[in-house]
Amino acid sequence: MTSKSKTGLFALGFYTVAALFIIIAFASPYWLVTDGKLKNPKFVKIGLWEVCFNGFEEVHHWYDTVFKGCWWIFEEEYYIIHDILLPGFFIATQFFFTIATCCVLISMFMTYMYMKKDKDDDNYVTLLVTLGTVLVIGGFAGLISVVTFGARGDGRDWMPNWEHNDLGWAFALGVIGILFLFPAGILFLIEARVQKYKKLHNMQSREPSSHTMHERKIGFSVLFLLSAWKTLCQYSRKVSLAWQGLYRGDLAPEAEGRSSPIAGAASAADASEVADESASVPVLPRHDA
C-alpha cells in the first residue's frame, strides 16, 4: 500500500464502516421485528430476503395453509400471499438497497486498486473520480430504500399485530451504512480534484525547465537584433541631419558656445585676407602744421 493523504485515509475509513454495515443489513432478517410483548405473535421478523412467521394465516382469502418458521421470501409456498408479503413499497426497498449493495461491492475492487496504485499513475485520478461517483450513487439509492421502508415498514396495513412491530437493528445498520457512503464518496472526489491540480502544477513547473536554454537563446537573439536596429536607426538619423546641414550651410553647433568646423575655417580665411590687405597699403608720413 502506497502512502495516502489524510483525505484518502478518511475516505477509506468511512467506506469500510459503510460497506460492513450495508452488507450485514442486506443479509440480516431484522429489518422489522416483533417487540416481544405478545406470547404467540404470528409475525416474528422480516428482512429483505427472509421472513419468519409463527402460525400466520391469510385472513382475507381463508386459505387453509398456516405459515411457520423462517423461509426465503420468494419461496414457492409463499406465492399465495405475495400480494401481502411483497407490496410495492417493499419491492422498491429491495430494489434500491440492492443497487446500493452492488455499488459497495463494485467499490471494493476499486478501493483495492486505489490502495495499490501510485499517485503518479496516469489512471489514478480517473480511478478516484469513478470510485467517488459510484459511492455517491449507491448512497442516493440506499437513501431512497431506507426512507421508503422507514415510512411504511411498521404501518398497520402490512404485517399482522402492527402495533407490536418495530424497526430492527439491521435496518438501523443499513441507515448508518448508507449515510456513511456520502462522506466516503465526497472525500474520494475531493482527493481526485486535489491530485488533478497537483499533476497540473507539476507539469507546468517541469515544462519551463526543459526549454529554458532554448528560450534564453531566442530571447538574447531578439534583444540583440532590437538593440542593433535601434542603434542603426539613431546613426542613420544623425548622418542624415549632418548631410542636410552641409548642403544648407546652416549646420547647428553640437554644443552651446562651440562653433562648427566649417564656420571656424571661414572666419580664419577672412581674417588672413584682411591682414594681407592691411600690409599692402603704404603708410604715409604725417606732417605737423
Automatic annotation (TrEMBL):
GO terms for biological process: regulation of tube size, open tracheal system; septate junction assembly. It comes from the Eukaryota. Residues 262-282 have a biased composition (Low complexity). This is Kune-kune. It is found in: Membrane. Keywords: Membrane, Transmembrane, Transmembrane helix. PANTHER family: EG:80H7.2 PROTEIN, KUNE-KUNE. It is a multi-pass membrane protein. It holds the Pfam family Claudin_2. It comes from Papilio xuthus. The chain crosses the membrane at residues 12-33, 84-112, 124-147, 167-190. Residues 262-289 are annotated as: Disordered. GO terms for cellular component: membrane; septate junction. The keyword Membrane applies. The keyword Membrane applies. InterPro entries: PMP22/EMP/MP20/Claudin.
